[in-house]
Amino acid sequence: VLQLGSDILPQYKQETPKTPPHIILHYCLFKTTWDWVILILTFYTAIMVPYNVSFKTKQNNVTWLVVDSIVDVIFLVDIVLNFHTTFVGPAGEVISDPKLIRMNYLKTWFVIDLLSCLPYDVINAFENVDEVSLLLFEEASITYKFSNQFT
Questions:
Q1: How far apart are alpha carbons 44 and 39 in whole angstroms?
Q2: CB 6 within 8 A of CB 43
Q3: How many C-beta atoms lie closer than 10 Å to residue 86's C-beta?
Q4: pTM: predicted TM-score of the whole model, two decimal places
Q5: Three-state DSSP class for 70?
Q6: φ, ψ of residue 84 in degrees (nearest 5)
Q7: Surface-to-core class of residue 138, CB atoms within 10 Å of its CB (0-12 exposed, 13-18 middle, 19+ buried)
Q8: CA atoms in the 13 A half-sphere facing the CB of 118
């Protein structure tokens, strides 16, 4: 039988540390739930991006563009939350100093998280619009040249 007594729990979980009001404890229910949501969205991204790149299924589909944009915004919110979330220091203590939290996050996961929330689908959507505009322009110029031959 597994018991969660004081001999098993880490010191920082035995007593709630004093944190500033804008700092989130990394093991609170909200942060745990949020991390599960981020994990699910990461799996969604890891499956859907290669699939859509391979089969080009949603190039002009606005619904998928909106869903992917919402996922990107959620990843951006995750970056903001990570700048306000405690972490466990090398000695096993909870670090709740905002400056130390920022420095730790910038040195560890920030670059990866930032790259994950860039709106590649939106950029590709504008890229496709340029291709469509170019095709329409070429078609219009061919039509114009053709119509001018008979006048």
A1: 9
A2: no
A3: 24
A4: 0.70
A5: helix
A6: -125, 25
A7: exposed
A8: 8
What gap in Å lies between CA 22 and CA 98, rounded to an integer?
9
Q: Which of these, 117, 104, 132, lies nearest to 23 by C-alpha position?
A: 104
Structural tokens at position 56: 């080009």
Amino acid at 133: S
pLDDT, tens digit, 9 for 90 and up, residues 6-51: 555 565 555 677 788 899 999 999 999 999 999 999 999 889 878 8
**Contact predicate 84/101, CB 8 Å:** yes
Beta bridge partners of 88: 94
Residue showing tokens 């040195």: 107
Using an 8 Å Cβ cutoff, are 117 and 72 in contact? yes
Q: How far apart are CA 140 and CA 134, in angstroms?
A: 10
Cβ within 8 Å of residue 59, ≥6 positions away? 124, 128
Q: What are phi and psi of 85, to 5 degrees?
A: -115, 135
**Residue 2 contacts residue 10 (beta carbons within 8 Å):** no
DSSP notation for 2-57: ----TTTS-HHHHSPPP--TTPBPTTSHHHHHHHHHHHHHHHHHHHHHHHHHHH-T
Q: Comparing C-alpha atoms, which of 78, 91, 101 is closest to residue 23?
A: 101
